[in-house]
Amino acid sequence: MNQSDLMEKIISLCKRRGFVYLSSEIYGGLANVYDFGPLGSLLAKNIRDLWIKKMVQERDDIYLIDGSILMHPKAWEASGHTVAFTDPLIQCPVCKKRFRADHLEGWILEKDNQTGEWKILEQGSLTCPDCKGELIPTVKEFNLLMATEVGAVAGEKMKVYLKGESCQNIYLDYLPVRDTMAAQIPFGIGQIGKAFRNEITLGKFLFKVREFEQMDIQYFCAPENADKVYEEWKKIRLNWYLEDIGLSKERLRWRQHTPEERIFYAKDAWDIEYKFFNDFEELEGVHHRSDYDLTQHGKFSGKTLDYFDPQTKKRYVPYIIECSGGLQRTFLSVLAESYREEMVNKDKRVFLKMKPTLAPYKAAVFPLVANKPELTKKAKSVFNVLKPEFMTLWDDIGNIGKRYRRQDEIGTPWCITIDYQTLEDDTVTIRDRDTMKQERIKCSDIVQYIKEKLNNA
Ligand code: GAP
C-alpha cells in the first residue's frame, strides 16, 4: 500500500470510528490539538496500562508518580527551558505562514544551547514552501513553552508554564520519593504525564501535537554505573515496542544524535525511530543525561540533592538515564502497524491486526437476528457475563457479515454469535478477527477462552 495513502486511510478511520477527533471541531478546530474519542481513549488507556505493568508493576525498582501540570517557574529556569527551548522560525512575508528554518531546503543552523540563539551556517532556499513567495532570511527564536498565570488578583498573578516536558516534576520529586519510599540507588521514577509545546510544524496528525503525553522513566544511578545502566535501558525499551506493543523489527531502528544535535550536557543520546509512513521518525528518546538535572535543580532550589551511598560510602549527584516516549506516537505506530486491507469474496475487508491486549474492545456479542426475543434474551445474558470481565460491545444491526466488518475495522479480536443452536445446546460461535475462523464453544467457557487467548497473545 502506498504509504501516503495509508496515512490518509488511518486519519479517516480514526475520525469515522471514534478513535481521534480534532479538538473543538464545531468551532473549526484548534490546529495540532486532538481528542481521543471513545475507541481512542480505550486504545490509549491500554497502552498506558501496559507501560505501567511492564515498567512499574513487573519491576521492583521503579516508583510511579502522577505530577502536576503547573510547577514553580524556577524549575523551568533551572532546566534551561525558558532560555533554550527554542525553534528557529521564518515567517513568509506574503502568506504569513511560519516555518522552522532548519526544516527548509538547504538551510543549516546551529543552536547555542546555553543562550538558545541560532546561528545560520548555510542559507538555503528563499522560496516559501506554501505560496512560493520570497522569504526574508531573518530567523527568530521561538520559545516552545506555553505560559499561563496563577492567582486570582489582578496585578498579583504569577506567570507559570505548562509542563514543556513531563520529566521535570520527576526531578523535583526525586527527593520526596527517595525519602518516603526509602529508595536506594539505583532506582527509577516513572510517570505518564502531559506536556505542552507551541509546535510550529502543522499537519502531522498525532505525530506532532501541541498537547501530548509522555511516558517517562528517569533512572537514577551511580556515575560509574551509568554507561552499563544506559545499555540495559536501551534493550528494555526497544523490547517493549517489539514484544509488548507488537511493532515489527523492520520498521524500528536506533539513531544516535549527532554531536551538533545532542544537548550539551548529555553523554550520549539515541532515539528509537519507527517507520510511521514514508520515513523513520522519533518514537522515543533514550538519553544519558549525566548529573545535569539534579545539579541544576540543587543549585536553583538551594536543596542538597546528592546521595550518600551506604555501601560504597561515597557521596555523589546521581546520574540520570532517561527513557521518554510519546503516547500519541505509540498510538499512531500501533495503527500504522496494524492496518490491513484484503479482498474477501470480492469485498474489501479492513481490519486492525493489533495485539488483543491493546484492542479497545476485546469482544462483541451478536444475536443472529434482532427480532427474535429468545435470541436477544440469551445474547444479553452472555453479554452481561462478559461485560464485567472485558470491554465488550453489543451489536444487533444489519447482517452478521456487516457486523464482523465493523468489528474488524476497530480491531475487536473476538465476535460471539448467539444463534438457534445456542438455544438448544448452550454453545456459541466465536470468530477470530485475523483468521476469520469460527469455533463453537460452550457459553460457560467463553470467559476462560478469551482470558487464555489474551494471556497467550
Ligand atoms: N524529556 C525529554 C523530552 O521531552 P523529547 O524528545 O522532546 O524529549 C520525548 O520528547 C518524546 O515525546 C518523543 O520521543 C516523542 O515521542 C514525544 N513528543 C515530543 N514532542 C511531541 C509532539 N509535539 N507531539 C507528539 N509527541 C511528541
Helix residue percentage: 25-40%
What is the topology, as strand order, of the major beta sheet? 3-11-12-18-15-14-13
* CATH topology category name of the largest domain: BirA Bifunctional Protein, domain 2
Q: Could you give the distance between the termini?
A: 26 Å
Q: Treating each run of at least 4 consecutive H or I residues as one helix, how many helices? A: 12
Taking all residues together, what is the mean pLDDT?
A: 95
When the domains are counted, the total is 3
Task: Assign the CATH superfamily of the largest domain.
Answer: Bira Bifunctional Protein, Domain 2
Radius of gyration: 26 Å
- Main sheet makeup: 7 strands, mixed
Q: What is the number of beta strands? A: 25
- The name of the CATH architecture of the largest domain is 2-Layer Sandwich
Quick structural summary:
The chain is α+β, with helices and mostly antiparallel strands and 457 residues long.
Q: What does it look like?
A:
- There is one protein chain.
- This protein is an alpha+beta fold and 457 residues long.
- Helices cover 31% and strands 29% of the residues.
- α2 crosses α8 and α3 packs across α7 (292-301).
- The chain is globular and about 75 Å long.
- The model has no long low-confidence stretch (mean pLDDT 95).
- Bound molecules: glycyl-adenosine-5'-phosphate (GAP).
- Glycyl-adenosine-5'-phosphate binds at residues 165, 167, 197, 199, 208-209, 212, 214, 282-285, 322, 324-326, 328-329.
Provide the fold topology.
Layout lengths: L2 H14 L3 E3 L11 E3 L1 H20 L4 E4 L7 H7 L1 H4 L1 E6 L6 E3 L7 E4 L6 E5 L17 E4 L3 E4 L7 E4 L6 H13 L6 E10 L14 E11 L4 H19 L7 E5 L11 E8 L4 E9 L3 H10 L5 E2 L6 E2 L2 E8 H12 E6 L2 E6 L10 E5 L5 H14 L5 E3 L5 H10 L4 E5 L1 H6 L1 E6 L5 E5 L3 H11 L1
Parallel strand pairs: 3-11, 21-22, 21-23
Antiparallel strand pairs: 1-2, 4-5, 4-8, 6-7, 9-10, 11-12, 12-18, 13-14, 14-15, 15-18, 16-17, 19-20, 23-24, 24-25
The protein binds glycyl-adenosine-5'-phosphate.
